[in-house]
Amino acid sequence: MKVVTVIGNRPQFVKAAAVCGPLRAVHEELLVHTGQHYDDELSTIFVEELGVPRPDLELGLGGGTNTDQTARMLGALGELLRAEQPDAVLVYGDTNSTLAGALAAAQARVPVAHVEAGMRSFDRAMPEELNRVLTDHMADLLLAPSDVAAANLAREGVAGDVETVGDVMVDVAQIVAPRARADGATLVDAGVRAGEYVLATAHRAGTVDDPARLRRLVDLLLGLGPPVVLPLHPRTRARLREAGLMARLQAGVIVCPPLGYVAFTSLLIRARAVVTDSGGVQKEAYLAGVPCVTLRDTTEWVETVQTGWNTLVDLDADAARSALEQEAPTTRPQLYGDGHAGKRVAAAMARLLAL
Ligand code: UDP
Q1: What CA–CA distance (Å, rounded) separates 176 from 193?
Q2: Residue identifier of the C-alpha nearest atom 3 of ligand 1
Q3: Spatial separation of the C-alpha atoms in residues 100 and 77, rounded to whole Å
Q4: Residue 10 CB less than 6 A away from ligand 1
Q5: C-alpha count within 13 angstroms, C-beta hemisphere, residue 168
Q6: 203 catalytic, yes or no?
Q7: Which of 77, 227, 266, 321 could make a disulfide contact with 197, Cβ separation 3.0–4.6 Å?
Q8: 315-318 long-range CB contacts below 8 Å, 24 or more apart?
Q9: What is the Cα–Cα distance from 315 to 67, expressed in whole angstroms?
Q10: Of 114, 203, 233, 340, which one is the catalytic site residue?
Q11: How far is Cα 73 from Cα 291, in angstroms, rounded to an integer?
């Protein structure tokens, strides 16, 4: 059976790393990279590091507004599906590539499987939330990472079949953990000591596109206290340059280019805390037992907040500082599965294709 998988940005490469192997053991897979993130440091490094197969097709459709980008992807993917005639389309997460892949497939009457189904921040101002909700309501197979996600789907009465498979990023975190533990060099390169620094990331439109909020982000990071290491996403770098804030940031924050997954994980597992607006990084901090401060006022990874490992502060610098002072909780339940989600995704796809 032939599956077209659509990916386009950094976390989707990470998620594909867990699924491509088990999927290809039973099915033919055509991996399509929309080019939503086209920088090497956000995409091809994962091919080398995580063993994601090299994409079979690169559409080069990055840039533009969300609507414009989604529309261009939809056109290109519609054409591709007509030519390839797959038995199913597989999409991950909540990006424009996810929505375009699902809609192109649904319109071509090709069954859609969605990995990371049911995640909700309940904030429709986030482009990601729109992409999640719409994709879930088009999908035939909804592969949920947690019980909370499956309950969201039940409440919304989605039409497709829901299966809780666990989180595919847990699979990848477990596979990479020994390499990350063995990598002491990244810490030395950053000039920090284990347990004494904060690892920060920020790239979401809601954090970096408005210059006033971007300035609040810079001030928050500068006022945190411990040394802050910030692997800088290209979008954030561009916004900081446009706003003339780069020198101010670099005066007090250790700024480096985006890191490969092993190097990033090596910094994450040794950090005193993580400060981020990323979805995936909140969860990776939880998996590593590192307290997280999230620069948003909502999260789709609600369990990390409920268990006390994650605090939502938006861009409130005082709240961020006091969250960093809190003691870490003593318990950390296994919320997101056992590290075998990739195999369950492949098995569920086999059942979908047998229908
Ligand atoms: N990541 C990475 N290098 C970095 C920053 C993040 O490999 O310099 C990884 C991180 O471990 C996680 C993923 O990228 O797996 C998160 O991607 P991002 O924050 O872009 O997306 P989101 O999770 O917010 O959708």
Answers
A1: 21
A2: 259
A3: 7
A4: yes
A5: 27
A6: yes
A7: 227
A8: 315/207, 315/213, 315/216, 315/217, 315/220, 316/220, 317/216, 317/219, 317/220, 317/223, 317/224
A9: 27
A10: 203
A11: 37
- Ligand 1 pocket check: which of 43, 232, 278, 290 to mutate, most ligand atoms within 8 Å of Cβ? 278
Q: Which residues of 208-226 are buried (b: 16+ CB within 10 A; e: fewer)?
A: beeeebbbbbbebbeebee
pTM of the predicted model, to two decimals? 0.95
C-alpha to C-alpha distance for 216 and 331, rounded to whole angstroms: 33
* Amino acid at the residue 350: A
Residue among 227, 342, 330 nearest 273 (CA): 227
Q: pLDDT of 46-86, one tens digit each?
A: 888 999 999 999 999 989 999 999 999 999 999 999 999 99
Structure tokens given for 22: 């088990």
SS3 91: strand
Closest CA to 167 of 317, 353, 19, 298: 19
